[in-house]
Amino acid sequence: MSDPILFTRDLWVRVHDPNGGGSPIAVVRGANIELQRGATTCLVGESGSGKTVLMRALLGISGARPGVTAGTAWARPDGSEFPVPLVGPRKRWRGRALPSLRPGWAGYVFQHPSHSLDPLLRVGDQVGASVTIAHSGLTPAAVKRRVLHWLETVHLPNPEAVAQLFPHELSGGMAQRVAIAIALATEPDLLVADEPTTGLDWSVRRDIVDLLGELCRARGMSLLLISHDFQVVEHIADQLYVMFRGELVEDGPRRAFFEPGPGSHPYTRELQARSRALEEGSSPPRLHLAEQPTSSGAGCVYAHRCPWIREPSPERSALGERCRSVRPPDFRPSSDHRVRCIAVGEPT
Amino acid sequence: MTLSSLWTQRHRQDQMGPVSVFGFGVLIGLVGLRIAAMFVDSSPRLGLQDEQLLPAMAGPSWDHLLGTDQLGRDLLLRMVDAVEAFFLPGLFACLVAALIAVPTGAIAGYWEGSKGAAVLRGLLTMISAWPRLVLVVVVVAIFTGSVRDPAAWAEVRLYLLGGLVGLSYIPQLGGAVSERVQHFRREQFVEAARAHGLSDRRILLWHILWANCRHLVLRHTCTLFGAFILVETSLSYLGDYGVPPPRPSWGNILAGVRHSVVHSRSLMASSDSWSPAGLWGGVEQAIQHGGLLGVLAPTIAIAVSIAGVLALAEHYARRDRP
Amino acid sequence: MSAQNASSSLVLQAKGLSHRFPGGVAAVNGVDLEIREGEVVGLVGESGSGKTTLGKLLLHIIPPDTGRVAFEGQDLAELSPRERRRTRSRMQMIYQTAAASLNPGLTVGQHLEETVRLHRPEDAHRADALVDETLTAFRLNGKRALHPSQLSGGEQRRVVVARSLLPRPSLLVADEPTAGLDASVKADVIDLLRNARGGRTAFLFISHELDVVRYVADRVLVMYRGRIVECMPAAALDPRDTEVDHHPYTERLLSAAFKATRRVESPMIRPTEDLFKAGCSYRAACHRTEPDDPSWSRCSQHTPDLIPLRAGHRVSCHVVAPSPTEAS
Question: Which candidate, B1, B244, C55, C264, has a CA 20 to 30 Å from the CA of B303?
């Protein structure tokens, strides 16, 4: 029944110290991700948790930083498996006749459309460049037809006029729609949106998220949405992965997160409480950012911030030491729901 | 150990690299030599009242580590003493350049668009339009011609040279400062500082010049100091307008010794036919005679000093990130 | 707003503030505004609505073209530059981009020491200890000798907040103090702002995030293209409450919340006509009126006033809040 379009097995990304000193820093630690075909998967976590690094690694986009990866990632755009060339060890694939992925099989939408659009090119030409990736050898008229089609698909009014504009003439929301049109023009099987609403007005945030969801439903496209905003996630996600300091601490289907049921990870609870507090205008939970994480790397990654350790209830009082020293095992409340937490695994 | 720890890594560049170590090493060396030069007196003797004249062009020995020059003076002492010729005048050049160029550039940059700034900018352009090095030589020549005893005025002439080289550097330094100030003036932190209640004077002096331009100025003064060493030793080597011969300068030491070496080489060339053995013999002879060391020592000293000062300039350039 | 608040003294009073830039990009058009002691006023609107410009006009960082600003009873335009600088210790501003409003060449400690020397001369003798106390209060221990670029986004923001609260201002204009921050860090900065002021500092809290503003503010102003179009108690800014009438623009903003019960499509046209022309500036994008409606001539010819709907709630819209003279 499982039909992933992209999956990883124990993916690690280590980033080299730019000055060569010390061992590489593990930014992603043993990620197992499965993006189901036609579903919306959300990767949630705060900045610095390694979300973007993970996304770049598993799509084989070499980032600005040199990375070392271990583990495997496989893409199945049309049922047959392709290895994703991971950022680091390209050499491993050299010399083998590898089936290569169709260029443009995945499309990207980044935060701050102003950064991803070329300021010197007209909108139409940028979408056109993307069109020719999917279809080479089109006549200019055919390209133009497709450009207008894609601009219309993202609900831009008067596509003819918009195609003639330069990016600086667009509002933030329009620019992000153009960025989505560019991503769509390669006719991708997978759309990746990395924080697509940050840097945009609050008022167009929902428009963009709704548009992404609608496009994916209509085209049977899979969507990977990376966000730190639980409100966005709650709105759109089918499947969730929660990331904290390089580790996927929890994953599961939508109902595991938004319906009452067996416990979720304390970090997920923190995120949820915070987003709910803003919605209801109540005071958000106090954040204990001051405490530094232990450097040893042993124990739970969330231990330094975990409210259950900080203010232990009588039945959980014995947990603190174990959480700090023992790497928590995966606990599965149901077959498709996984939580990496000792306390959740041992209900009191 | 998340990505946030990478934040700090950009700043590891601030640690001293080999270039910085070399630069500061040379600087400390030069300062040490300048202090030593105060206790060394090698020039006025000239064998006048000294009964025990040393042999001329002697090779290195324990008494005279670098041997002697063509007049039998200890080469090491003269090398040390020669630092006097460029050290303080060089600093004077830097001082003149900085004292004039920094305020000029700062005002021209900060009050960009005002009348005063336009005048200052015009001034900088005018100075930069002159053929500066020629002008320096001409002014020094006129000065030399107008005093009765040029040798007695040699010290003044060195400072004059320093001042002129410093003046000639003003357009470069002033331009760099004004460009930098102009750039920072438009930054948001300047508006934020003003909104915070700071005066323009404080913003310009502390927030822009001190916090963001000091490395730039240091970098340029180091370059200028290097340039002055080159100008002084070159003029002294050429003769007339540099350090007059009884006083040592790396330039005139080189000039004097070179003359003797060329002379002896031409003798050797006439006596021997060109053969590898003959050439090696000539080199050996030159070392023993102190000629080669006499050429090498000032050449290396000039090269190392300038390279060191430029390394220091590089050190500040790396620290200087707008 | 409590009765005690209403009687407390005005910190800031602005009348008829207008400003236009040479290009006419972001401008402010005839804004009246009063801020009382210790009050938190939220200012919401989309980018380009003139929120930031209004904040700067209020503090005389940009002198207004027309209109007057009185801060604690003193007309700011009448002060000499020196006196105005001195007044700045009681009115502070937090800029939107924390990274850009800190000097890249100075350390965190140098920033704060400067503030103590400048704005709290009476504490200058214990500047060092005071800076350390402040750093502890803002959880920046150990960051004193670091440069801004060595800090994370949240830490930079906390430095900026610390610097603007150190002079103990009576008014703080906070321009998008949470923009670009993670949800968790955002809540953290808001809490610092709320707690650190000790209830005595009045805030103008500028943001485009309605949920944040509702949480922070006592009273909310909605700005559209240089005008205040609505003024209401913060509790009225609830996307799930359909009972309360709002300006059509506010309605649209509220409908953008994920939990909103009504949905108003945002038009993707950029209004091009002159901001200073007569007529409602929102009419071209308005979903409450059409050019075919009989009321259209009123919307296009008369600029609506802020009409009270109920206590503390005023709306500038011919449709939602017709002026009493017209209604009669």
Answer: B244
